[in-house]
Design goal:
alpha+beta; 5-stranded mixed β-barrel; 3-stranded mixed β-sheet
């Protein structure tokens, strides 16, 4: 009878010269594939452990809503809530079904990063422009040393204007870089610079109803 379902072999493919290959052996365990995890964005998180070849384990995330996202230009990372799946280069269906996969573009909660920025630079993000270099620190708590430190940090800080804009909405665009169906985690990085511009353009096009 038939054995095992999904196979990752190349025996069913044609040769480079175009010839058919003879069926000369059965499927092997090491060519086995499994059903896709189709990790969904949901509060009701669920991660299953799957025993795999060599006695190892994979962690199959079925539903997730949190992940650790890194803000590389500020060299910091925070655990934050994933709010929405907004773009997927491979398949629009995955956006509609809110499926979390590697390199999907999502929106994450900006609050943890905002809080970090507040303590690190003493200024709040996403607030309408005030006088530059205005250090708003609680005077009762901050020593002169800290004020000096913050002033110095403010001189070198530079936030991507596109990212700044997002802070006022409370949501940041991010890309998933881990593989939720393999590691059980949904981690990634906040989009900045050229990459962010690229995806914003894509999203605009999608909004405009361009299927291209």
């Amino acid at each position: 009878g038939p054995i095992m379902g999904i196979s990752r072999d190349s025996l069913h493919k044609r040769r480079a010269t175009g010839g058919r290959k003879k069926h000369w052996r059965k499927k092997k365990k090491y060519e086995m594939g499994r059903q896709p995890a189709n990790t969904k964005l949901s509060i009701n998180t669920a991660v299953r452990r799957v025993r795999v070849r060599g006695g190892n384990y994979k962690f199959r995330a079925l539903r997730l809503d949190h992940g650790t996202f890194s803000w590389s230009s500020e060299a910091t990372s925070r655990k934050t809530r994933i709010l929405d799946v907004v773009y997927n280069a491979s398949n629009n269906e995955l956006v509609r079904t809110q499926t979390l996969v590697k390199s999907a573009i999502v929106q994450v909660d900006a609050a943890p990063f905002k809080a970090w920025y507040q303590t690190h630079y003493g200024t709040e993000l996403g607030v309408k422009k005030e006088k530059e270099g205005d250090v708003k620190v609680d005077d009762k708590k901050a020593s002169n040393h800290i004020k000096r430190k913050l002033k110095q940090r403010l001189q070198t800080r530079k936030v991507d204007p596109n990212v700044l804009e997002q802070f006022s909405t409370g949501r940041l665009y991010a890309s998933i870089s881990s593989r939720p169906g393999q590691s059980g985690r949904c981690d990634g990085y906040i989009l900045e610079g050229k990459e962010l511009e690229f995806y914003i353009k894509k999203l605009m096009k999608k909004k405009a109803g361009g299927t291209k």
